[in-house]
Amino acid sequence: MASSVPQNSILNESEIEENDKVPARPQLNLSGAAIFQENYQGRDPAILLPNQQDDIPLLALDIGGTLIKMVYFSRHGDPLVDDKQKRYLKEGLEVSNGSNRSYPVKGGCLHFLKFDTRKINECLDFIDSKQLHRGGIYWRSSEAASKNNMVIKATGGGAYMYANLFKERLGVNLDKEDEMDSLVAGANFLLKAIHHEAFTHMDGQKEFVQIDENDLFPYLLVNIGSGVSIIKVDGNGSFQRVDGTHAGGGTYCGQGMFLTGCKYSFDELLELSQRGDNKLIDLLVGDIDGKMDYSKIGLSASTIASSFGKVVSEKRKLKDYRHEDISLSLLRMISYNIGHIAYLNAKIYGLKRIFFGGYFIRGHACIMDTISYAVDFRSNGEEKALFLRHDGFVGALGAFMSYEKHGLGDLIGGPSICRMIPNGAPYVRGTNHGSLLAGLNEKAIHHEAFTHMDGKKSFVHIDQNDMFPYLLVNIGSGVSIIKVDGDGSFQRVDGTHAGGGTYCGQGMLMTGCKYSFHELLELSQRGDNKVIDLLVGDIYGGMDYSKIGLSASTIASSFGKVVSEKKELEDYRHEDISLSLLRMISYNIGHIAYLNAKLFGLRRIFFGGYFVRGHPCIMDAISNVVDFRSKGAEKAMFLQHDGFLGVLGSFMSFEKHGLDDSIDGPQISRTIPNGAPYAEGTSQGSPLAGLNEKISWTDKLRCLVNKVLSVKGGAVKLSEVETYIPAAARIRQDKRETSSSILKGVILLLVYEGVMHLPGAARIRESIFEFLAFLLACEGVMHLRGATRIQDSILHHVFFVLAFSMYIAYSYTA
After folding, report:
1. How far is Cα of residue 232 from the mean position of the Cα atoms in its chain?
2. Which tens digits make up the pLDDT trace of 317-368?
3. Percent of the chain with pLDDT over 70
4. Residue 14 pLDDT > 60, yes or no?
5. Cα separation of 671 and 245, whole Å?
6. Distance, CA of 137 to CA of 9 (rounded, Å)
7. Is residue 193 part of a domain?
8. Max avg pLDDT among 46-50, 331-335, 651-655, 707-711
9. Are 371 and 400 in a shared domain?
10. Which of 207, 649, 672, 766 has the smallest C-beta neighbourhood within 10 Å, fewest atoms?
């Protein structure tokens, strides 16, 4: 028989060996659990266990790449328990759990603490000082070398990475619990047992939500740690990990450290963001459209069009930007993206409840507001983001309760909360839309579409009688995702502001603003992202996370490795930074595109836009995401003229405005509605519309220039414009060779058209222009002499896609 153990006593290992049996286990009673009333409004409030009788030290850990989360039980004599709490424990407990009830003298509390993973010794010192690990003497570890070894329940990748350290310092074995199992167990406990655990947070207003435990399932659980896991929970012990992203808390912290010179911790970065102004960093709709709202599609002038996009057009250095503004811009980019992906998954699986947890949130108002805005906006107000008061401790709570799972059924009264089941799929492997669609829907080009996987390019034959419907993903400064049902029939269904402008803006800042877009891409070809990114193997001690199909080389958190290393920004190679950033942006775009294809049941996804520009790494990253998530059922397809779709559509649309004499031969395109950049509908059309053909070209160009000058960022002054208006009219009449003057006028036209709204091509070199001119001449669309002799002065007024202007220039001189 097992010997009895007096309350408050602890047996040492020699006593256990002598008895050859483990003493009777004290029991943990979770019935009646509630938030401790005296700390009701605080962060991570203690959870009262009013019916707990046995006094036993017990704890569980969630050891992540950035933080260690601890849950431990204490009944009395705890230096962290204040006098008021001690008085409640001694004199009777008043708790709020739907009604006011008094409990006799008994009970204890679950406490919640965090430690920086880089300072893990502080965590070990705390455990040792309070002798919390001694409670593990009552439980057997499945991995224990002998049956009397003490154990601590632990989850997270650090349970593998730091197992030897715990053994050496404390003499305990870390009994490893699966992360997904722990997350779901912890969330189910909080949502079913704790009153006022869940709440909404919108525009700074917090409102608690009553959860009916009989109507809880199904729901979506989004856990935001270094990376992000998205889990569909169908009931007690029934769940599936359906999605995730590696752009999470580790990304925010890692990039934030880079962009602020590695001077701040996670908490300090969050604090900085509260004093920031992201409008100084992000490109807004108003910056593109002259401070006007895009009211036709419901976008205000303050809407972010491209995160970090404003950096591209400004000739400033990293030191010229405030750390507060950088932190807020980055925080909103990461938070909005997480809310966006979570909503798409909820839509796909028909779920109405989305709960967000994880220590990235930590009750931060801006994070919660941004996530809430993303869910509210995309669902048209039909769904709300829900948050948890113990957001960062969900996994640790689940691990704490798992002592019951291995035959310890008396530890938790009632039905078990979670069972072992397979997890879902992993999340990663190893402008003007009318013009865009007109360009893509032109069906006469053989060998236009191709796939690109693992460096191999394969052309795809497109049957023009069976090409609809498809998804078009145009990647410029931001990203537009368009569902195309036929010629002239389409809808902009989604988009993201983390696009080419984000890559270029962040890349410039992280590398000291030394490189152009093209140079950043070239740098990435010589990079090694494993130096920057936190991989699954880094978390799990070099092992795969085979249970959910993640290899050790899978990226778990973009820029996550930066958080754990004590390095300065200059210690990292620009090549590695560029590649890590490129893969993060590319993966994310492919991810969101695939979710939209799945949502609308589409099998073809075409990727275009000048961000792609035939770059193998970009195409491979996008292809891998689509291939993996669809289990090989879908392939990402790219276009030979990926950056020229919009201008091709504009070129073919002259007929629509009564300018059919500008195109020789058969009409290529009929009236094609111009799409809107952020939502369904049509654009406002070209400024050429409404200009009567009888008006002289001099007056037409003058009219267009006046309109352009009303838009913020007009390239030249009116006095300069006057010098080339006569030249433009003369060229129209006698087809003389193109001069730099007419090219300036064409560029102004395109700025107004919205075809080229990406800022910042002042540093484009003449060699690039020569190549583009040669390419276009070979295509047979440009026969202008002297097109490559572009003067230096034009460099101050053009964008990096000068090829657009070449197309339009030809149309004016044909």
Report:
1. 19
2. 888 999 999 999 999 999 999 999 999 999 999 999 999 999 899 899 999 9
3. 61
4. no
5. 40
6. 12
7. no
8. 331-335
9. no
10. 207
**Could you say which of 643, 669, 686 is where a domain stops?**
686
Question: Nearest to residue 613, comparing CAs of 340, 800, 469?
Answer: 800
Claim to verify: residue 730 and residue 615 sit in the same structural domain: no
Residue bearing tokens 């925080």: 331
Q: Are residues 793 and 645 in the same domain?
A: no
Q: Which of 29, 91, 19 is nearest to 56 (CA)?
A: 29
Q: Is 80 exceeded by the pLDDT of residue 289? A: no
Residues 6 or more apart in contact with residue 6 via CB below 8 angstroms: none
Whole-angstrom distance, CA of residue 130 vs CA of residue 419: 32
Whether the CB-CB separation of 548 and 425 falls below 8 Å is answered with yes
Q: Give, in order, the Cα–Cα distances in Å from 602 to each of 460, 483, 634.
A: 17, 9, 9
Hey, what are 3's tokens?
């010997």
What pLDDT does residue 291 have?
57
* Local structure of residue 2 (DSSP, 8 states): P
State pLDDT tens for residues 418-465: 333 222 333 333 334 444 444 454 444 556 789 999 999 999 988 878
Q: 372 and 452 share a domain? A: no
Q: How many Å apart are CA 439 and CA 433, to the nearest integer?
A: 10
Residue 775 lies in a domain: yes
445, 560: one domain? no
What is the C-alpha separation between 441 and 81, in angstroms, rounded? Answer: 69
d(CA 184, CA 667): 60
In the listed set 686, 713, 746, which residue is the last one of a domain according to the structure?
686
Count of domains for the chain: 4
Top-confidence residue, 400 or 14:
400
Let me know whether 224 and 341 are in one domain: yes
602/636 same-domain check: yes
> In the chain, how many H helices and how many E strands?
27, 27
Is the link from the previous residue into 57 a cis peptide, with omega within 30 of 0? Answer: no
pLDDT digits (tens, 9 = 90+) for 645-675: 554 454 444 444 333 333 333 332 222 222 2
In one letter, which amino acid is 400? F
DSSP state of 461: -
Give yes or no for a contact between 158 and 115, defined as CB atoms under 8 angstroms apart: no
pTM: 0.73
Asked whether residue 203 is domain-assigned, the answer is no
- Per-residue pLDDT at 365: 94
C-alpha to C-alpha distances, 101 to 30, 31, 37, 105, nearest whole angstrom:
16, 13, 12, 13
Q: Residues 764, 767, 773, 776: is their CA dihedral positive or negative?
A: negative
What secondary structure letter does DSSP report for 637?
E
Long-range contacts of 581-584 (CB under 8 A, 24+ apart): 581/503, 581/506, 581/507, 581/510, 581/524, 582/503, 582/520, 582/521, 582/524, 582/615, 582/617, 582/618, 582/621, 583/529, 583/533, 583/555, 583/558, 583/617, 583/621, 584/246, 584/247, 584/251, 584/558, 584/559
Is the preceding peptide bond at 677 cis, omega within 30 degrees of 0? no
Q: Range of 150's domain?
A: 13-184+394-411
Residue type, 548: I
Confidence of residue 640 (pLDDT cuts 50, 70, 90): confident
Residue 652 structure tokens: 């073919």
d(CA 674, CA 650): 10
Contacts of 230 (CB under 8 A, 6+ apart): 220, 221, 222, 223, 241, 242, 243, 244, 341, 342, 345, 427
Q: Is the dihedral of CA 247, 249, 250, 256 positive or negative?
A: positive
Q: Residue 728: pLDDT band by 50, 70, 90 thresholds?
A: very low
Question: Is position 8 within any domain?
Answer: no
Whether residues 549 and 579 share a domain: the answer is: no
Confidence of residue 729 (pLDDT cuts 50, 70, 90): very low
What is the distance between the alpha carbons of residues 363 and 43, in angstroms, rounded to a whole number? Answer: 7
Whichever domain contains 584, its CATH number is 3.30.420.40
User: What residue has token string 């507001």?
Assistant: 369
